[in-house]
């Protein structure tokens, strides 16, 4: 019987969560969507910069430099994102 009551409580609480659209104590959907779009914009900007570098490269050495530069920027960005996420 206790299990049934616990399961019923869980079902009703999940229903309330679905109707509300946000997690208890968490960001709402619009905030999550805005952050996702910001991340996409940053990645697109990095890729455009990388593409311009590759197009400008005239030899293998320059191409490798483009790749290394992109790796370092991505690594730095990832580190900042992790620090930001940890709060």
Q: What does this entry look like structurally?
A:
The chain has 87 residues and is mainly α. The protein is 85% helix and 0% strand. It has a domain of 57 residues. The protein contains three helices and no strands. Helix 2 runs antiparallel to helix 3. Keywords: Signal.
What's the N-to-C terminus distance? Answer: 42 Å
Class per helix and strand makeup: mainly alpha
In what range is the share of β-strand residues? Answer: under 5%
Number of helices: 3
Overall outline: elongated
Helix content: over 70%
Keywords: Signal
Signal peptide: 1-18
Quick tags:
elongated; 3 helices; 87 residues; 85% helix; signal
How are the secondary structure elements laid out?
Blueprint lengths: L1 H19 L8 H28 L3 H27 L1
Helix pairs in contact: 2-3
Quick recap:
By secondary structure, this protein is mainly alpha-helical. It has 3 helices and no strands.
């Amino acid at each position: 019987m206790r299990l049934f009551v616990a399961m019923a409580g869980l079902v009703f609480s999940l229903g309330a969560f679905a109707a509300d659209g946000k997690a208890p104590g968490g960001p709402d959907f619009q905030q999550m969507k805005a952050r996702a779009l910001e991340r996409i914009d940053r990645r697109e900007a990095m890729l455009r910069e990388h593409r311009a570098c590759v197009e400008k490269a005239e030899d293998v050495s320059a191409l490798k430099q483009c790749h290394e530069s992109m790796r370092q920027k991505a690594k730095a960005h990832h580190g900042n994102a992790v620090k930001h996420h940890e709060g």
